[in-house]
Amino acid sequence: MLCRVAESLFWMSRYIERAENTVRLVDVTLQSLLESDTETDDISFRHWQPILSSLGDLPLFEQYYTTRNSEAVTDFLMFSHDNLSSVYSTVSAARENARMIRDQISSEMWEVINRLYLYLKQRDITKLQQEGYEELFQQVKEMSQLFQGVTDSTFPHRIGHDFITIGKFIERADKTGRILDSKHYMRSETSAGEDALAIAQWTALLSGCSALEAYYQVYVTDVTPENTIDFLLLSREFPRSVLFSLNQLQAAMHAVSNCPLNLYSNEAERLCGLLISRLNYARVAEIVDNGLHEFLSEVQGTIDTIAIELNKRYMLTEIIDPVETIQTQEQSQP
Question: Among candidates 78, 105, 104, 100, which has minimal Cα distance to 20?
Fold first, then answer.
């Protein structure tokens, strides 16, 4: 397979997954703000600020937005053309990558991506701000899942499909970790006497990951922080957990290299195996005691390095994320 085709398949899949998970992150935060009954724009923005920082988007947001409230951040993460990691921009980028390899993918895959792009392009932002984003969030998630189903049923399960799988699960592992990490700030804003609010926030987090029903199938008790962390981080069975995603990523990478799972043939495979081993033997109590935020930051850093090594090994150029490109350009300006 040509490197440029592998690169386009990887990014097409990763951008669609990124759009879905950005929607989930925005949805979780808006639900949490609603539960906490936040009254002022300043307090509201303080909930968004660490999320923007973790995504690497805070400097860009501050450059283009003077108003700092939920509406501004939601617009920035959902529709901004200046933010190349917004939902609209990532879907546009997925569509462009699909267009470049139009003859390599199925017509059904192209139609789903194109429909999602046109749907976002035609949205009335003012109307959304007045009536709410629930329908839009649901539509983006459903179209992303439709794309995955169409891909599995219409695209040959050969090496190209492996690159699609790699893109999907490396993005999912990263973003599920970031969604879980969003509770880091919520916890600091919740006093010891607000246990009900804290549980509501953890429940909203599970709902944002479409994990609440699956959670109750495993844990018959009420939602607790420890069980939620265990489920979203360490579950070997739930498809959106970090560990499950990394296991799928590892299998796809080894399918490409034809290297047995108990060995490694490149740095990306070595790092992925080490991270999986660490999560396999991790205990939630130890993670919480040592700092969930610090642990997740290390996991996300390793995932970023895996992506860089993958692109060095298989694709035309080293991986350059759109957000990093913009930040580098801004820093080089006088």
Answer: 78
